[in-house]
Amino acid sequence: MNALTGEALASARADAQQAYRDLRARKPRLDGDSIDVILRHARSHYAWQDRPVSEDTLREIYDIMISGPTSMNTLPARIVFVQSDEGKARLAKSLKAKNIDKMMAAPVTAIIAYDLDFWKELPFLFPHEDRRPHFDGKPNHSETTAFRNGTLQGAYFMIAARSVGLDVGAMSGFSNENVDDEFFAGTSLRSNFLCNLGYADESALFQKLPRFTFEQVCSFQ
User: Which CATH number fits domain 44-204: 1.10.600.10, 3.40.109.10, 3.30.470.20, 3.10.290.10?
Assistant: First the structure.
């Protein structure tokens, strides 16, 4: 653990606060089209153009995603980018039949996983206080924390991919146990969901399904 102290800590905090003020001054909010792209009119895609996704783009997505907040900066998400024929064949064994063609046609399928041993990295990720005792010897608490925050990171991942011009199609129609046996055997990683990435063939889209209104699901206390 190597936390900043004294003047170095005060300076780092002041710099962070000013950087945030400057950003908000430059960009107080996103424009409507940007919001549409990442969420409001974004769609889940099932058909893909025959266009590759570069490693540089995947790295850019990661660089955006990893800045999203998690509890105690735990960052439990782990990602496997499956793009080779061999990798796709291994992954296909875990999918429900109706999802195999969707996955095989996507240039990249990301396995969004989480690490049950995330807490062992806290001296690096949360250096100003040793939070490992919160998780050491507490597997249920560790798994709940890893799953919750890894899922958050999966959502950040999808928004990041859309923000750099890709389309996404998240999938849960597969066996987590089979994926874990095939890709994570003997490790502390567990799969959460799959996410196809690429440039969508929009001709396969159908109309957007209904959404709840504010009044149906929100309340004030």
Answer: 3.40.109.10
